[in-house]
Amino acid sequence: MKGSEALIDAAIKEGVEICFANPGTTEMPLVEAIDMVPGMRPVLGLFEGVCAGAADGYGRMTGRPAMVLLHLGPGLADATANLHNARRAHTPILVVAGEHSSWHRKYDPPLTMDIQALTGTISGWQKTVNFPGEIRGSTVDAISASLQGQISTIIIPFDLQYDEAPEGKIPSPLYTCTANPVEESVISEAARILSGGKKTLLLLGGKALQKEGLMAAARIKAKTGCDLMGEMFPARIDRGAGLPDVQRVPYMPEMALEAFSKYQSIVIAGTRIPVAFFGYKNLPPVFVNETHEIFTLAEDGRDVTMALGTLADALGASTSLEEVLAQPRTFTLPVGKLTPDKICTVLAALQPENAILVDESITTGVMYHTVSSGVKPFTHLTLTGGALGFGLPAAVGAAIACPERRVISFQADGAALYTLQALWTQARENLNITTLVASNGRYDILRYELMRLGIPAAGPAASRFTELPDIDWVRLSEGFGVPAVSVSTAEALIKEFEWALKERGPRLIEMKL
Amino acid sequence: MKGSEALIDAAIKEGVEICFANPGTTEMPLVEAIDMVPGMRPVLGLFEGVCAGAADGYGRMTGRPAMVLLHLGPGLADATANLHNARRAHTPILVVAGEHSSWHRKYDPPLTMDIQALTGTISGWQKTVNFPGEIRGSTVDAISASLQGQISTIIIPFDLQYDEAPEGKIPSPLYTCTANPVEESVISEAARILSGGKKTLLLLGGKALQKEGLMAAARIKAKTGCDLMGEMFPARIDRGAGLPDVQRVPYMPEMALEAFSKYQSIVIAGTRIPVAFFGYKNLPPVFVNETHEIFTLAEDGRDVTMALGTLADALGASTSLEEVLAQPRTFTLPVGKLTPDKICTVLAALQPENAILVDESITTGVMYHTVSSGVKPFTHLTLTGGALGFGLPAAVGAAIACPERRVISFQADGAALYTLQALWTQARENLNITTLVASNGRYDILRYELMRLGIPAAGPAASRFTELPDIDWVRLSEGFGVPAVSVSTAEALIKEFEWALKERGPRLIEMKL
Questions:
Q1: Do B272 and B132 share a structural domain?
Q2: Residue B297, Cβ density class (10 Å: 0-12 exposed, 13-18 middle, ≥19 buried)
């Protein structure tokens, strides 16, 4: 068995089923290995940012790592922005980057980069394999490490891929890391604060925002009267009727500060002290202050789901949750020229049960979270790291992870343009993705920020850098093989969206604003 | 004057005239400064790889740095692949990356990355400015350092951009670095080898491949009978009738080894010992061996133009060069279904005098360099670092650098898809760029490499990762506002290409293979 086959064999046996890739010459033995060892599905992205974003969407939905196979430093560089988003989402990913043979790399051929330094910016675990005998072990270690909610990178030189790897069974990983449970004393203290009569917020993040954690939080709320709030940009939040209605930390710092000012105590579960997305002059960088009693039930990485369940039990919380769960609601469908609010309402009204909403809607979606309270249950993925180009690729990964669910990709035009090549993979793999592109022809978020900073948006540079006119999303989408249509009224959006949701395969709707 | 204005003011006074950017919130004061301080042209790229590639094309044509303004770590990450190409081309570039205010960064908000580590992979010079008083000096130092043929990066925190910078004149840079001339003894030794009667190759790279260096090389050839060869992937090579016909080091190692096997002595001018692009089992990583007498006249970074001139003088080389310069030639225009060779011939036959050819044609262009010997004088830019997505953006930069010259962008489809957003900037800035996309629907280079490695290209993964069917370049181009047409015969290509060359503004021709 070649080294490349040893790597693929170990990855498959550890449960890796998908390889999102844009390989090059130095990765060809790994491509051959995917053909030789059954069990890995190959999915091509026309740009590495597509591969990385797809692995992020896949990992958020499955909790398991996909493999991302990249061509040397430049391939990794192209994947880095979306790997940054994945890092912020604590998504498990197995990155495999090829490298020149050691006897060749020393001559510094053109593609040579400092791959270790590059991947150090996004990886929690990394290793360059140095001899064939360590390929299997490194692969299982990488996968095991990724399950802590991080990116693992294996750098594998070309010669090690085609050299024979010694026979042997797949070793067990050097370490098995399980999240330590939260100590009893911490649970007791949280229970004391929540029962203490002060106005208290239970701030939820990470896995606390998935169904099991949310239901435990609902029990805590029903018993203690605390409020629930989710982190600003959750990797994944389960929402809709029958789940507690959890609003998120507002993006605008003034609104966030006001939201937190209502509370005397804040119990943090699965996230961190809330920080402003950007620092502004004359505004504090964090949204809490010395008047708040802050208590951390579970940091990032702890088993927050179990902690919330144990806490609910400790509080003797009831299981009658009727009053704290969102009730199904009906919508009045809007009419007339599209606006961001009408778009949000149409989406919320029509999205089917069990949809996965991949949300990189930026300014157009500002109201969506509020508007969509109480819709049919669905899963909501957001832009965790602020690096644009997350949405279209993540929709690919979510659709591959959950082929029986409808994926809705709610996209700002400016962000979508970063990784529009993902549309081709949507077509190639015939994925059930409905893309809604909000086409306002501007980086509207920057115009808002210019206004905040008191900078005239009409200046030649300010306007040049914030306006993106004359983009035709129907042509771009069709150019990649995804059928598309353009709408500018609510009525047309309703008709096209309803139709698209019934179709198999991808479809894009350009929403002209 | 704010810190942001101090930076822009210093850059303009040091000769920086263009800012290719995709800025974000943390760079808005710099955008304002571009509006406040006259003299900097703002050019938006819809993806940072476009900005970086444009700065590479601009710098190769002008020898001066453009500014590339990027949004924090993710913006820099998206620019990294094309900055890698620029690094390999020794292109001067001034990268300016925003950063969170120091009092905010410590809270690790979502966009935070290790920007220093990231830029360390592509920068020759970098600095994070720490107080307003050092902004001007850091900017002039960065520009001065870039002129050594490298990327300089300034990381500037948000608060330093809007804080007042102390008044003061623009300081001179701390160091002025000039390339040291080649020592006389080295010139004499090179002259001795070239006159020694052995079969000798003068291997040219870097600035030696521009007109002045080439004409000196021609004099040396006329006098000594040596052969001339250019490096495998030159940043810029001036070519055509009236210049010496310099073929390049072949990409295929067997061909390169054969080419070098003809020589007993090799004199290197402005490049390095030639290395294989990829290392292959059973083939040497470098193309020369112990039978070659290797002598370096001038390394990368030395003033190779002057060295060649001095060497020509030392040899008493004549100025009658008729026999060593390429003669104008005529072409028989091909007919029938397009093939790579016909495409190369049509291009060579019709390209106008003084064109700039940005060449990322990969397999389709294999024959172009040979076919185009003796065409009307032009400048040829190639993919120096192997990171795909160079061509369309570099065409933007070349067209902005040389508005009076016709830019022809000769593109492989797979590579063009990496940074196709550049087409939008071509339309927005109404640049005279004619793009020829060779649309074969495959990563043909990988199929070649699979064959070399004896790996079946028909395997599910091997075919999945090398085939990219169903891409419609006319729609993609029109989606970005660039008029486009598709051709599949030589006759149609000739007609459309002739017409496009007469038009102002950008136009794309999809060449179906």
A1: no
A2: buried
Cβ count within 10 A of residue B13: 16
Domain span at residue B32 reads: 3-162
Number of domains in chain A: 3
Mean pLDDT of chain B: 96
pLDDT band at A179 (very low <50, low <70, confident <90, very high): confident
Question: End of a domain among B299, B324, B349?
Answer: B324
**Beta bridge partner(s), residue B39:** none
- CA-closest candidate to residue A190, choices A103, A122, A270, A85: A270
Instruction: Give yes or no: residues B257 and B373 share one domain.
Output: no
DSSP conformation letters of A304-360: HHHHHHHHHHHTT--S--GGGBPPP---PPP-SB--HHHHHHHHHHHPPTT-EEEEE
Which of B265, B292, B324 is where one domain is finished? B324
Evaluate whether residue A137 is within a structural domain. Answer: yes
- pLDDT reported for residue B11: 98
Average per-residue pLDDT for chain A: 96
Which of A100, A114, A465 minimises the CB distance to B31? A465
Q: Examine the domain organization and report whether B9 and B146 are in the same domain.
A: yes
How many CA atoms lie less than 13 Å away from B80 in the CB half-sphere? 35
Which two structure tokens, joined as six digits, stand for A89?
């989402």
| Nearest residue, CB atoms, A44 vs list B118, B233, B464 | B464
Q: Are A402 and A411 in contact (CB under 8 A)?
A: no
Residue in A closest to B26 by C-alpha: A278
| A335 within some domain | no
Q: Do A260 and A391 share a domain, yes or no?
A: no
- Does some domain include residue B330? no
Q: Is residue A458 in a domain?
A: yes
Of A25, A43, A384, the CB nearest to B449: A25
pLDDT, residue A267, reads 98
**End-to-end C-alpha distance for chain B, whole angstroms:** 57
The CATH number for B290's domain is: 3.40.50.1220
Query: Does B470 sit within 8 Å of A475, measured CB to CB?
Result: no
Same domain, A344 and A259: no
- The pLDDT score that the predictor gives to residue A76 is 98
Give the helix/strand (H/E) hosting A79: helix A72-89
Contact at 8 Å (CB) between B221 and B308? no
A494 and A419 in a common domain: yes
Q: Is the domain of A154 the same as that of A188?
A: no
Alpha carbon distance A181, A260 (integer Å): 28
Pairing of strands A433-439, A227-230: unpaired
A435, two tokens: 């893309």
Q: Are A321 and A218 in contact (CB under 8 A)?
A: yes
Give yes or no: residues A480 and A356 share one domain: yes
Mean of pLDDT values over B321-338: 95
The string of pLDDT tens digits covering residues B422-442 is 999 999 999 999 999 999 999
**CB pair distance less than 8 Å for A121 and B109:** no
Residue B335 burial (10 A CB sphere; 0-12, 13-18, 19+):
exposed
Provide the shortest C-alpha distance from residue A256 to chain B (in Å). 15
Residues of A in contact with B462 (CB under 8 A): 31-32, 35
Tell me the ipTM for this assembly.
0.98
Q: What confidence tier does A170 reach under pLDDT thresholds 50, 70, 90?
A: confident
Q: Which amino acid is at B340?
A: P
User: Residue A195: which region, alpha, beta or left (left: phi > 0; alpha: psi -120 to 50)?
Assistant: alpha
CB contact (8 A) between residue A279 and residue B417? no
For residue A390, give the CATH number of its domain: 3.40.50.970
In SS3 terms, A123-187 reads as CCEEEECCCHHHHHHHHHHHHHHHCCCCEEEEEEEHHHHHCECCCCCCCCCCCCCCCCCCCHHHH
Contact A31 B456 (CB under 8 A): no
Nearest to A481 among B73, B281, B470 (CB): B470
Are A40 and A16 in contact, with CB atoms under 8 Å apart?
yes
